User: What shape does this take?
Amino acid sequence: MRILILSDIHANLQALEASLEAAPAYDLAVNLGDVVGYGASPDEVVKASRSLGNIFVRGNHDKAASGISDARDFNPIAAAAIRWTGENLSAENLAWLKALPQGPLPVEGETGIQLVHGSPRDEDEYLMYEQDAHAILAGIQVPATFFGHTHVQGAFAGNEGPTRFISPRYKDARKIETFEFELQTDKKYLINPGSVGQPRDGDWRAAFLVFDSPSRMATFYRVPYDVKSAQQSILAAKLPERLAIRLGEGR
Ligand code: ZN
Assistant: This one.
C-alpha cells in the first residue's frame, strides 16, 4: 500500500493544493493532525482534507480551536489565531474537529505502522532530540511511527545502538524535490513528514511524505507553493502579521 502522509496543514490552503498536485498516485491518505490554526483558510482546508479520506489523528490546535482544551499553553500569537479559527469555522467543521481521535492510531491492513501527533507516549510532546526518540524507540514494538507537531521533516532511526536523525538533503528550494530512504528491518523508526502549511526547518516549501509499505521506501517531498497568496490571506483576515512573515522564512 502506498500511503500519502500529511501533517500540520494549519489552514494553509495554498500549500495543501500544491502538495496534492505534486503528490504521486497513492492508495490511502492519512493526516497526523493540526489541520487548522495559524492559517487563514480553516473551513476550506478541513473540507479538502476530509475529501481525501477519514484517517486523522487530532493535533493540539485542533483540540484548542474546537474547545477540547483551552489555549493557555499557547503563545499570544498562536492563541490569537486559535480564537480567530474557532470564530471562523462552520459549526459542522468545529464538531468534526472536536470528534477527531487521539493517537496512536493504527492503519487497517498495515500492522507495522502507527500514527501520532506528538509522540506515542504523549500526544502533545515535541519530539526534537535523539535522546527522547531513543527512549521511545526502546519501548515500542511497532517498526514505524509517523508523527508531526514539530514541523521538522526527518526520521529518527534506532534500536539497540545509538539513535540517529535522518535529515533529508535537498539542492534547490525553487523546485519540487524528493529525498527517499529505505526502512531497514533491524531498526525502528519515528518519521516526521514535515509540515504542509507552516514548515519550521528553514525550508519554506510545503512538506509531506509518501510511504510505500511493500518496498519499505519512504519518500520525503518539498513543494514550492504560492506563499505570497497564503501571506496575503493571513493579512486580509487580520491574523497576526508574524504568522505571514514566518511562512516566507520557513521558521
Ligand atoms: Zn502544528
Q: What stands out?
A: The pocket of zinc ion is lined by residues 8, 10, 34, 59, 61, 149, 151 (CB under 6 Å).
